[in-house]
Design a protein that fits this description.
The structure is a single chain. With 204 residues, the protein is α+β, with helices and mostly antiparallel strands. It contains three helices and eleven strands. β7 and β8 form a beta hairpin.
């Protein structure tokens, strides 16, 4: 398997801090990944997402209303495993390209029920800025603009609005402010973060 990102894509991310890739996975893998998320939804494995980190985690539905299920990279369903392996390669690739010393990543399935949202925030925790690059793979079939759920990324005096269409990967610096606009229909994604520490090291 060759490089995941082209030189042009790497240059774009270096200058903009944001990169969109449509049709990131094969359509078959993306479809299976959506079915695996729906499987866990049917198993009632999703929990209300919280704000904060570790002992400071708390539920605040007026700020964030999505539901999540964390992914175990070593023990996950087949299409999810394919995607995790792809992310591993992508992490190594971006780490080398930008001299970031990335060491690990974490991922979760996310569902935004109708009328849910996530207000303006950063993915880096206060005093624990180990998340360096954020990635969101969208799994919304037949998405229409009226369905809502757009990702808005703020950078200096400008903002970028990203439509959560099926099999689109959004990659952006975790330090950037962003939000998810209210959804008018159910919204599926897999969210991941490339980190400069191992996942089991949570006290640093």
């Amino acid at each position: 398997m060759g490089h995941i990102l082209t030189e042009a894509q790497l240059d774009h991310f270096a200058h903009e801090g944001l990169l969109l890739i449509d049709n990131f996975l094969t359509n078959e893998t993306a479809q299976q990944l959506l079915e695996e998320a729906k499987f866990w939804q049917a198993e009632e494995a999703f929990k209300k997402a919280g704000i904060g980190h570790l002992d400071k985690l708390h539920i605040q539905e007026n700020y964030r209303a999505d539901k999540i299920k964390w992914i175990n990279k070593q023990d996950c369903l087949p299409a999810t495993k394919i995607y995790m392996n792809t992310l591993e390669k992508l992490m190594q690739e971006t780490s080398r390209a930008f001299f970031l010393s990335l060491k690990d990543f974490e991922s979760m399935y996310a569902i935004y029920p109708r009328a849910s949202f996530y207000k303006k925030h950063k993915d880096q925790f206060e005093h624990q800025a180990h998340r360096i690059i954020s990635l969101v793979l969208y799994l919304n079939e037949d998405w229409q603009a009226d369905d809502g759920g757009q990702l808005v990324i703020y950078k200096e005096d400008e903002k970028t609005i990203i439509e959560p269409i099926f099999n689109r990967l959004a990659i952006f610096k975790s330090e950037l402010w962003h939000e998810v606009l209210p959804c008018q229909s159910e919204r599926f994604s897999v969210t991941s973060w490339f980190k400069d520490q191992l996942n089991e090291v949570n006290f640093l």
